[in-house]
Amino acid sequence: MRKILLLVIIFGFSATIQAQKYSKEVIDSMYVAVQDVQEKLSKPTQIKIMAVGDIMMGTNFPNDSYLPPSGKGPFDDVNSVLTQADILFGNLEGTLTDEGENAKRCSDPSKCYSFRSPELYGKYLEETGFDVMSIANNHIGDFGEIGIKNTSKTLEKHNIAYAGIFAQPSTIFEKDGVKYGFCAFAPNKDCIKIHNLTNAKKIVAELKEKADIVIVSFHGGAEGLKHTHVTRKTERFYGEDRGNVYLFAHTMIDAGADMVLGHGPHVSRAFEVYKNKFIAYSLGNFCTYSRFNLDGIKGYAPIAEINIDLEGNFTQGKLHSAKQTDEVYPFIDEKKRALKEIKKLTDEDFPESKLIFEEDGSFTQQKQ
Q: How many CA atoms, within 13 angstroms, populate the side-chain half-sphere of residue 20?
């Protein structure tokens, strides 16, 4: 049907030119109109975006014992799901650098949580198909300026878009004829601040003018087992202002964002659909090898599959449940624990969203 429409337009255009003598300006404008139609018809009508939480594939700080044994890729056991995405997102919880000294003050390095993954690990992200990553979090500055620069260079080398630092607050990338705008925020010193809503709105509005779909990422909210619920208030953790993630997410969508993807609490949190736009308040840990507490719900590793139309509106989704254990990369969880947890939290925290989850993980929004 779409091809027929294009043929009708082109035929009518050609016949009109032959029948009448038009000025060059009119003819040029008609050519532009045809090109616009061709561009729209070449784009997909639905986009499948997949999103995961924190990724730290192994660290050689304080020593190489925290690196995984060679031979197995970090995403081997979940690639059957991840490779189905049109766009794949994750939060890089740490650095990709072969240089840099620990920037944190630690009397005992074994108790200092600084993450330095070898640059060669960037190949795993590219091979699995990650398109875009947030580097706005409390670990991007673990190895100083050189760590940030090398992380950026490594992601660029592997054709992965990224944002969230002062040198790159936002980015625009294109895939399958669709132009995406992306920005990322966190409460931490090396990042674009989650607290500055005025600046965040400005960034989103600028992206909206240039891109078809705008995706916002945030690293925020209090951490741990006692902080699975979205309070709709400013959250503090060890005295640090970790942002009001509810206000932030809604403000970003009001400013023009089409999707908001959260991480930071190291546990899963609820989903919400606000003004037809999807929000994940925390996707928890996903691929965090060693140095992380993965007990109980901290080991749940959800994969959010979100289908949107070209206007950025949520149409349907599916939650794939994966799991981690200490020093074991993520694998599909047949018990679907991440699904059960996020369904419960969504029902409790955002009943107004009316999201209906099925046993296979698929979910839709009940018609109002």
A: 8
Lowest mean pLDDT among 103-117, 175-189, 227-241: 103-117
Predicted confidence band of residue 10 (pLDDT cuts 50, 70, 90): very low
Amino acid at site 96: L
Give the pair of three-digit tokens for residue 333.
Answer: 């969880």
d(Cα 221, Cα 66) in Å, to the nearest integer?
A: 27
Angstrom distance (rounded) from CA 89 to CA 87:
7
Q: What is the pTM of this model?
A: 0.90
Q: Which CA distances in Å does 58 have to 54, 64, 244, 284?
A: 12, 9, 31, 17
Coil, helix or strand at residue 170: strand
Average pLDDT along the chain: 92
Residue type, 330: P
Element (H, E) at 96: strand 95-96
* Residue 106: per-residue pLDDT: 86
Largest CA distance in the chain: 84
What mean pLDDT is predicted for residues 296-305? Answer: 98
User: At what angle are helices 24-42 and 2-19 packed, to 10 degrees?
Assistant: 170
